[in-house]
Amino acid sequence: MKIRVTNYGKLIILFILCLNAGIMNGQDIIQQIVYKPIGVFHSPYSPETGAPRQGILIPEGNGTIEIYPEYQRALKNMELFEYIIVIYHLDKVQKWNHTAKPPASNPDYKFGLFATRSPNRPNPIGLATVKLEKVENGMLYVSGVDAFEGTPVLDIKPYLPSVDGVKSIQNEMIEKELGLHD
Amino acid sequence: MKIRVTNYGKLIILFILCLNAGIMNGQDIIQQIVYKPIGVFHSPYSPETGAPRQGILIPEGNGTIEIYPEYQRALKNMELFEYIIVIYHLDKVQKWNHTAKPPASNPDYKFGLFATRSPNRPNPIGLATVKLEKVENGMLYVSGVDAFEGTPVLDIKPYLPSVDGVKSIQNEMIEKELGLHD
């Protein structure tokens, strides 16, 4: 069987290929930010069991973070820190809403999503300050975990009290009033 | 001009197309996490001027976060908080290293990347607790910014002292010793 491809036809094919490549690159550079997991959470929690809101409030809740082999060299001296910040991808989140109801006493309260810790965010990024118990063979043993088993981990940072732990009476007051740990 | 494409050849082309589509989807689903900016930082800093390490230590450094129109409804009640946490994409970062030297007195110190705040991370995610001065027309006026002009913003969260601002003498000590604000 023969298929005729004229020079004109070849130009069209070339044009489609270039367009395709252009769109892909355009999306990557302009609109999309692409990350790769550096590790994964292991915890006793699943969507079925649920996970505690802001697990640091339940310090006995233990879990581990498995750092993938290619990143384990980057853990050197991590064990010097008592608290670390974990940034992870809430991979079970399907959609997001503009508003959320904080777990407050007043059921009429509705807050803008960015004024809450609801997981249903446009970019479902989880953030937790957890206690680091031990580092062994590329595993971080932590307490205060509120993530599901299998949650992809994006970054680990040391917790620096002078910049991460600011004092704010105003935030303390609103936190107490609204119980914004969602 | 004619090009012969046998049935066998057509099968090969079909196979390559399917493989291509499969790889693309596989990367998206399994390996890659894709986010879209919800806004952008405006600040007086650029790669040429440099930016302060952990800008919160220079509270007079002011900037704004422009939230894109489709996300502005999610800012409701944001102004109740004195401090907010901003998660952003360090889009100028080109590569990462397994280790980094903290800005310490001893030039021999080498720390694993995850035990530092160096921007050269596998997933270059920036994290800053900043003071919120005002919210107006989808703009957050903040002080304590350490991001470059044009930095894409991924998420905003309220700063909750009880979970985000833990007390840790150990972290305070190591922070003082090493000046880990890089």
Q: How would you sum up this structure, described in words?
A:
The structure is a homodimer of 182-residue chains. By secondary structure, chain A is α+β, with helices and mostly antiparallel strands. Chain A has two domains: 34 residues, no CATH class; 129 residues, YaeB-like (Elongation Factor Tu (Ef-tu), domain 3, Beta Barrel). In chain A, 21% of the residues lie in helices and 26% in strands. The first copy, chain A, contains three helices and nine strands, in the order αβββββββββαα. The radius of gyration of chain A is 23 Å and the shape is extended. The N and C termini of chain A lie far apart (64 Å). About 4% of the residues of chain A have low confidence. β1 of chain A pairs antiparallel with β1 of chain B.
Cα-atom radius of gyration of chain A = 23 Å
- Order of helix and strand elements from N to C terminus of chain A: HEEEEEEEEEHH
**Large-scale geometry of chain A:** extended
Strand order of the largest sheet of chain A: 2-3-8-7-4-9
Largest interface: A-B, 74 and 74 residues
Quantity of strands of chain A, as a count: 9
Number of domains of chain A: 2
Number of helices of chain A: 3
Assembly classification: homodimer
CATH architecture annotation of the largest domain in chain A: Beta Barrel
Residues in β-strands, percent of chain A: 25-35%
Give the C-level CATH assignment of the largest domain in chain A: Mainly Beta
- Compute the separation of the termini of chain A in Å: 64 Å
- Show unreliable segments of chain A: 22-29
Mean pLDDT metric of chain A: 84
Q: What's the CATH topology label of the largest domain in chain A?
A: Elongation Factor Tu (Ef-tu), domain 3
Q: Biggest sheet of chain A: strands, sense, closure?
A: 6 strands, antiparallel, barrel
